[in-house]
Amino acid sequence: MAREIAEQPEALARTLEALLPLRGELRSLAEDRRVVLFVARGSSDNAAIYGRYLLEVHAGIPGGLAAPSVATHYHAELDLSEAIVVSVSQSGETTEIVETQAWAAGRGARTVAVTNDGDSSLAAAADLALVTRAGAELAVPATKSYVTQLAAMAVMADAFAPKPGSLDADLDRVPAEVSRLISLRTGVDEAAERLASTPETLVSGRGLTFGTALEAALKLEETCLRPVRGLSYADLRHGPIAVVDAEHVALLVSAADGPMVAGMTDLAHDLRRRGAAATIGIGGDSGFAAAVDVCVPGPDLPELVAPLALVVPAQLTVEALARRLGLNPDAPRGLSKITQTDPANDA
């Protein structure tokens, strides 16, 4: 896992170089289409959440997360003739995702596959495949395959935007920022120490960084075997915040700019007042850093592209925590690289 985290700058650079030239094909595919639906599970689902927010905020196109079971179990007859369906799968071989893409195509959708394997079933059947260049990923927890999926989301949203190319300058900076964060590691070991102090962990973010928060929560669960609640700032405020006490460590994720920083900073202050065992902040601005007990700096990138690098401090923290707990971060208990949702569908 540590080695693959370190490979992310090169993986991102390769992926952006390969996918940015496909923006014209993406725009052609989007002609006369009004909505984008994402199909994914696990880490890929968290990448899709970022894609959905970015499409709506940057490109002005409605997006949503489709439920694969609507296709695979309910076999619903939907009219998708105005939709682009984006199926996201690292392996491109998760049966449920492959079947859902075929179901969508049969109901009029144009299909885009985001996968790390250009020879996969998902890529072969799609109208257009965005093949990430993460290279072979051996550790079960997705790291470089996840960040390259985020890069694919950014390329797609930029292709659909009124002015394609407006993200280019910031995307060019992403690999170097990821490399800097990997080398820096500021706050990572202290964050792992605080997380190890109690098994009760709450993770929160909002907007464009919400998918990053959910990915951090997922990594803590699968890699460190901790029960974790990953909630948006808004959902946390609607009741669950009442459970926070001295047994809880809160991990808060924020970009350095944008409309969500103030709310995440207020949340950090509130969690302190409620007696949380510790508040750990990833990213944010100087006010956010001052509001948390431990700050793990994030990237110097604008909010629209920050998630491509913001997840890296979380990955480093999770890897450090797993080793602190005596666990093998590369092969979490009971998990495999390709997950089939329904055991009956296992190949």
From TrEMBL:
Pfam families: SIS. The keyword Repeat applies. GO terms for molecular function: carbohydrate derivative binding. PROSITE patterns: SIS. GO terms for biological process: carbohydrate derivative metabolic process. Residues 26-166, 191-332 form the SIS domain. The keyword Repeat applies. This is SIS domain-containing protein.
